[in-house]
């Protein structure tokens, strides 16, 4: 991970109101981000809450299932700095990087599906046989979803063979505050949007506040 790398996307919520610098909420948020920095790298996920009443803030951070502790720590550092820079007064915000996600809110969002923002990024190249390729993509990602929702890390990655010697690589992941059934709901719902956003594309990723999916024709994950 490159220090200072740009995020994939960020979202500053307008629904939860704003806070001012040096306020009690600001202090709670700074403490929360520090806690997430220390707690996330060892197992790739952390959530928690700091403060009380009007100053209470809830946060969550997660790194990719194949991301090393060192890269995870670097990503959380970048995410913590950038989310404060890009959403300086928002009481709720989310930022996505290639290797991690970080979000916070003044409302308890743990265990709740978050599809408020759905980001789609795709390869510009089209498969030679889109119909066959789409079916292979769905088969791979659906199979991985069946594994991930029951896995303690709510993560799975895998490979399937395509025509000739080509291979298709995929990964899926949910934030670990979700129940197994909600993880499955999030992943299946995200996979179902592929035809409308990424029909026949040789690679794509879709991320939400609760889960993410990705597939490529090159090895982007360790399997």
TrEMBL record:
Molecular function terms from GO: kinase activity
InterPro entries named in the record: CRR_secretory_protein, GNK2, GNK2_sf
CDD domains in the cross-refs: Gnk2-like
Main location: secreted
PROSITE patterns: GNK2 (PS51473)
Pfam family, one: Stress-antifung
Keywords, in A-Z order: Kinase, Receptor, Repeat, Secreted, Signal, Transferase
Keyword Signal: yes
Membrane-crossing residue ranges in chain numbering: none
Occurrences of domain Gnk2-homologous (ranges): 7-109, 115-220
GO (cellular component) term, any one: extracellular region
Source organism superkingdom: Eukaryota
Compartment(s) of residence: Secreted
Classification via PANTHER family: CYSTEINE-RICH REPEAT SECRETORY PROTEIN 38, CYSTEINE-RICH REPEAT SECRETORY PROTEIN 38-RELATED
Family recorded in the similarity comment: Belongs to the cysteine-rich repeat secretory protein family.
Name listed for the protein in its UniProt record: Receptor-like protein kinase-related family protein
Native source species: Artemisia annua
């Amino acid at each position: 991970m490159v220090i200072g790398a740009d995020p994939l996307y960020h979202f500053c919520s307008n629904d939860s109101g704003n806070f001012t610098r040096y306020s009690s909420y600001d202090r709670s948020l700074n403490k929360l981000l520090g806690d997430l920095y220390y707690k996330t790298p060892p197992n790739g996920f952390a959530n928690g809450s700091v403060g009380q009443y009007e100053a209470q803030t809830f946060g969550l951070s997660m790194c990719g299932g194949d991301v090393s502790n060192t890269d995870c720590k670097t990503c959380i550092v970048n995410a913590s700095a950038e989310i404060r820079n890009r959403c300086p007064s928002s009481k709720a915000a989310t930022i996505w990087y290639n290797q991690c996600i970080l979000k916070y809110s003044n409302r308890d969002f743990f265990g709740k599906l978050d599809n408020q923002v759905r980001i789609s990024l795709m390869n510009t190249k089209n498969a030679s046989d889109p119909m066959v390729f789409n079916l292979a993509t769905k088969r791979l990602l659906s199979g991985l979803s069946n594994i991930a929702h029951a896995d303690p890390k709510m993560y799975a990655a895998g490979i399937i063979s395509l025509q000739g010697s080509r291979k298709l690589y995929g990964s899926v992941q949910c934030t670990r505050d979700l129940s197994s059934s909600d993880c499955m709901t999030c992943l299946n719902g995200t996979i179902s949007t592929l035809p409308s956003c990424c029909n026949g594309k040789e690679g794509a990723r879709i991320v939400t506040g609760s889960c993410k999916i990705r597939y490529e024709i090159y090895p982007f994950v360790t399997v």
